[in-house]
Design goal:
The protein is an alpha+beta fold. Helix content is 27%, strand content 38%. The strands form two sheets. Strands 1, 2, 3, 4, 5 and 6 form a six-stranded antiparallel beta sheet that branches. Strands 7, 8, 9, 10, 11 and 12 form a six-stranded antiparallel beta sheet that branches. Strand 2 and strand 3 form a beta hairpin. The longest helix has 51 residues. The termini are far apart.
Length: 242
């Protein structure tokens, strides 16, 4: 009888040990699944960040921010962004005016339209204009186009120097037909300006022109890191024909 009790006790102990081992293995498997799922999600996030070219040396980047009341500007707000870099607190915004009669046009039906872009440094309670871009259509008797391309404003730090690059695109034309529009990409790092100028591609077969689809890269890009022009061309190809 004593032998039977001992055998039963041994069986129970062995069974408990096996159960513990099984529980540990299941726990390891569950843990592995959690890690794998986390890695998959992290991969998705990293892929998105890579596509959008997350700015490395830029902090607190926000779009569609409010423009302080003490900053005066012309036109209607289109887009704005703020961030922090080695220059401190930055604010960029783009505006467009409505069409308006050309001054002193002697009764002719001429119209104007204007685009402005502003970059301010907002430090120590003061706003300091870093640069301003002004472009316009003047004395146009036919159809005016002067449009900022929505979502084309980018803020990056492609050379990892802690100073942001900004870029945006817009189209402009004064025409009474379906010929191509002029297209411009304006890029800055600090006060230094870079540009690509050209034209869009017209979809109408009858409007095919030797001037459509042009892209003229400003020589100023010759002195920049290769990443600048790669990024600019990526924006150009994405937004040119909007």
């Amino acid at each position: 009888m004593r032998s039977i009790i001992i055998l039963v006790a041994i069986f129970i102990v062995v069974g408990c040990n096996n159960k513990d081992k099984i529980s540990i293995k299941e726990g390891e498997k569950q843990s592995g699944e959690i890690v794998r799922e986390t890695n998959e999600k992290a991969g998705e996030v990293n892929e998105v960040i890579s596509e959008e070219e997350k700015p490395n040396g830029i902090r607190d980047l926000q779009f569609d921010v409010q423009i302080p009341k003490n900053i005066k500007y012309k036109g209607i707000h289109q887009i704005s962004a703020s961030w922090k870099d080695n220059n401190g607190n930055n604010l960029i915004f783009i505006t467009l005016t409505d069409e308006f009669p050309t001054p002193n046009s002697n009764g002719e039906d001429f119209r104007d339209k204007e685009l402005y872009a502003y970059h301010y440094l907002m430090n120590d309670g003061e706003s300091k204009l870093l640069w301003r871009v002004t472009d316009f259509i003047r004395e146009c008797p036919v159809d005016i186009r002067l449009d900022y391309f929505p979502r084309s404003l980018s803020v990056t730090d492609l050379d990892d120097n802690g100073i942001a690059e900004t870029a945006f695109m817009y189209a402009l034309s004064c025409k009474g037909d379906v010929s191509p529009d002029d297209v411009k990409l304006i890029m800055h790092e600090g006060k230094t300006k870079y540009a690509i100028r050209g034209s869009n591609v017209v979809s109408q077969p009858e409007a095919v022109s030797e001037y459509e689809g042009l892209m003229n890269v400003d020589p100023s890009f010759n002195s920049t890191p290769d990443e600048f022009l790669v990024h600019a061309k990526k924006l150009w190809n994405r937004f040119r024909d909007l």
